[in-house]
């Protein structure tokens, strides 16, 4: 009971502190803007910890953050292997293949009006479909190892990148294209100097959406069959063994990998599209 | 018109490629079956054929080409096989009066759709509420919004098996666990889109309301909410597609009982490829219908509000 009371106290305390900071005079500084979400996160973790321990929630329902941290620290090598198998081999290789294929396809589509008219509605349609469903088929074709996971990722990331890139390549105005023409620029000159830079914000939008899709694809594909290593495999077998601390540790890995992946793509975007209004300060 | 011709051409090319792909994908299985039935095959023996190129095999055994489109358990079923299976499990069942039998895709589709819709309703409702809170409270905006954005980069679906098992162990079964996963997946797109939408009125419009001495409530109902509608519908379309994926993935760990996800898993257990493909197409048609329905609602609503194109 004491712990539950403590949890309530921490919740109110954290909220009060945040309210003070957010409505205070320093609210616009970078430090406070970083501090407030961190305080919120820490408060949430502490409340979770004390509630689970105080109410004695069994481990098979919800492990406390401390249990998850112990499981995380105790299985580092296992988690690292899973990370390599699912993220590096499955997700990243599929992501690279899928995104470059979509990019090349978008350039081809941009050159031919007929192809664009025909493929764009189809691409838009497919981008909204539950493509994860192809996982069992691709696992059957490419075997249980990471190749099939990469294949699922390729199919999943292809359409968002394609649709966004095609939209981006049409972003330039007639005035800008005419200017290139008065310079007697060839197709590729105007492509590299005008249309590609103008398309980059759109391309990166597709690339950023695809980072999450890539991880989802790689993990879900492992539910349909995998070697005895991998994040999806570990999650489904640990759930079967009711060792939920391990599941949560794996989810922490997935969360870290997902936000790192997204963050690194966003960083590349920032350095390449520094001129775009959304990146200016 | 020009677009229609182009789309149809592309679709025709895709189907033609699909039929062509059936040849190399299925030839080995067909030849093994043919050899067992006593037909002479070049080269004889499955072992000799194993390391051969599939294109060469097709050329050497051109008599087997029709059979690659009619196998019982092909590696890649031909389009007409999938279409026949789809008809057999939907239209034909209706004609026989067994619309809701266990083999009917209407039954499985309904199981998935009900979880999707329930989850979508929960997720959208909570998402809109949180967005309203974020727009009106500075504290919530600063503390919750960064986490809502970060959480979109996390493969939330990894939680699905655990949610199912945990809820099962505390006695919650049936539609609700799947709906929770669906709700979770549709929640964040709606929050992010709705916050953007509720903030879309510019300061000029907000100032105008202030000159009318409108209070917070009036400002919300008369300006912010109507202005957010286009954003809301965009995120609803993303949300419903995510909900469907959530419901399908939520059916996987429960061990293939009912639903489109169960059909996928069952098919992959027993090598019933035609069943997998037909379940996949059923899911695709369902997703397309849901998104199209939202698109129609969007058009009608925006038109009545005077924002329609």
Could you explain the architecture of this structure?
- The complex is a heterodimer of chains A (281) and B (309).
- Chain A has helices at 2-23, 30-54, 65-74, 76-111, 113-127, 135-142, 146-169, 174-182, 187-223, 231-240, 244-272.
- With 281 residues, chain A is mainly alpha-helical.
- In chain A, helix 5 (113-127) crosses helix 7 and helix 9 runs parallel beside helix 10.
- The longest helix of chain A has 37 residues, at 187-223.
- Chain B has 309 residues and is mainly α.
- Chain B folds into 2 domains: 2-76, no CATH class; 105-304, MetI-like fold (Orthogonal Bundle), CATH 1.10.3720.10.
- Helix content of chain B is 75%, strand content 0%.
- Chain B has 14 helices and no strands.
- In chain B, helix 7 (105-136) packs parallel to helix 10 (175-198), helix 7 (105-136) packs antiparallel against helix 12 (216-250) and helix 7 crosses helix 13.
- Chain B starts with a helix and ends in a 5-residue tail after the last helix.
- The mean pLDDT of chain B is 82.
- The interface between A and B is large, with 64 and 57 residues.
Q: Can you give the mean pLDDT of chain A?
A: 86
> First CA to last CA of chain A: what distance?
49 Å
Show unreliable segments of chain B. Answer: none
Q: What amount of the residues of chain B lies in strands?
A: under 5%
Tell the overall outline of chain A: flat
| Strand residue percentage of chain A | under 5%
Using the coordinates above, name the CATH class of the largest domain in chain B.
Mainly Alpha
The count of domains of chain B is 2
What is the terminal separation of chain B in angstroms?
20 Å
The helix content of chain B is over 70%
| Topology-level CATH name of the largest domain in chain B | MetI-like fold
Task: Enumerate how many helices of chain A there are, as a single number.
Answer: 11
Q: Count all strands of chain A and give the number.
A: 0
Number of domains of chain A: 2
**Which segments of chain A are poorly predicted (pLDDT under 50) over 5 or more consecutive residues?**
none
Helix and strand string of chain A, N-terminal first? Answer: HHHHHHHHHHH
What sequence of helices (H) and strands (E) makes up the elements of chain B? Answer: HHHHHHHHHHHHHH
The profile of the biggest β sheet of chain B is: none
């Amino acid at each position: 009971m004491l712990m539950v009371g403590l949890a309530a106290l921490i919740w109110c305390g954290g909220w009060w502190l945040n309210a003070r900071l957010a409505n205070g005079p320093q609210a616009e500084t970078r430090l406070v803007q970083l501090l407030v979400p961190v305080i919120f996160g820490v408060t949430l973790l502490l409340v979770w910890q004390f509630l689970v321990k105080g109410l004695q929630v069994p481990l098979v329902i919800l492990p406390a953050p401390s249990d998850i941290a112990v499981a995380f620290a105790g299985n580092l090598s296992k988690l690292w292997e899973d990370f390599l198998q699912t993220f590096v081999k499955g997700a990243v290789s599929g992501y690279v293949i899928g995104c470059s294929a979509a990019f090349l396809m978008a350039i081809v589509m941009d050159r031919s009006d007929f192809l664009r008219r025909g493929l764009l509605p189809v691409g838009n349609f497919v981008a909204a479909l539950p493509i994860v469903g192809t996982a069992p088929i691709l696992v059957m074709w490419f075997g249980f190892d990471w190749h099939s996971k990469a294949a699922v990722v390729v199919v999943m990331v292809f359409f968002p990148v394609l649709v966004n890139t095609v939209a981006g390549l049409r972003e330039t105005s007639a005035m800008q294209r005419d200017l290139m023409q008065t310079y007697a620029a060839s197709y590729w000159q105007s492509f590299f100097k005008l249309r590609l830079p103008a398309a980059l914000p759109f391309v990166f939008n597709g690339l950023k959406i695809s980072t999450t899709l890539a991880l989802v694809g790689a993990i879900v594909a492992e539910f349909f069959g995998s070697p005895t290593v991998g994040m999806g495999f570990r999650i489904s077998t640990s759930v079967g063994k009711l060792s939920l601390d391990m599941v949560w540790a794996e989810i922490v890995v997935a969360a870290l990998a997902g936000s790192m992946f997204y963050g690194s793509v966003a960083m590349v975007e920032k350095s390449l599209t520094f001129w775009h209004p959304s990146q200016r300060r | 018109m020009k677009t229609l011709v182009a789309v149809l051409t592309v679709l025709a090319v895709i189907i033609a490629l699909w039929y062509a792909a059936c040849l190399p994908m299925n030839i080995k299985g067909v030849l093994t079956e043919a050899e067992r039935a006593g037909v002479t095959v070049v080269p004889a023996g499955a072992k000799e054929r194993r390391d051969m190129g599939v294109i060469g095999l097709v050329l050497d055994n051109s008599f087997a080409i029709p059979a690659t489109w009619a196998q019982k358990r092909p590696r890649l079923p031909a389009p007409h096989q999938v279409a026949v299976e789809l008809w057999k499990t939907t239209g034909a069942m209706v004609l026989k009066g067994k619309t809701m039998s266990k083999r009917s895709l209407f039954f499985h589709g309904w199981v998935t759709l009900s979880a999707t819709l329930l989850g979508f309703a929960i997720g959208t409702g909570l998402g809109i509420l949180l967005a309203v809170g974020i727009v009106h409270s500075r504290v919530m905006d600063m503390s919750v919004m960064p986490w809502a954005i970060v959480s979109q980069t996390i493969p939330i679906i990894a939680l699905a098996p655990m949610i199912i098992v945990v809820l099962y162990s505390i006695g919650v079964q049936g539609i609700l666990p799947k709906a929770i996963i669906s709700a979770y997946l549709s929640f964040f797109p709606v929050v992010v889109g709705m916050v953007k939408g509720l903030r879309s009125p510019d300061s000029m419009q907000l100032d105008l309301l202030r000159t009318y001495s409108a209070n917070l409530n009036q400002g919300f109902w008369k300006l912010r909410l109507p202005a957010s509608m286009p954003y809301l519908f965009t995120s609803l379309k993303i949300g419903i597609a995510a909900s469907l994926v959530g419901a399908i993935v939520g059916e996987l760990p429960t061990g293939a009982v009912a639903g489109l996800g169960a059909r996928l898993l069952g098919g992959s257990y027993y090598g019933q490829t035609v069943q997998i493909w037909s379940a996949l197409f059923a899911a695709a048609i369902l997703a397309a219908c849901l998104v199209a329905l939202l698109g129609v609602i969007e058009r009608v609503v925006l038109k009545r509000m005077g924002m329609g194109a």
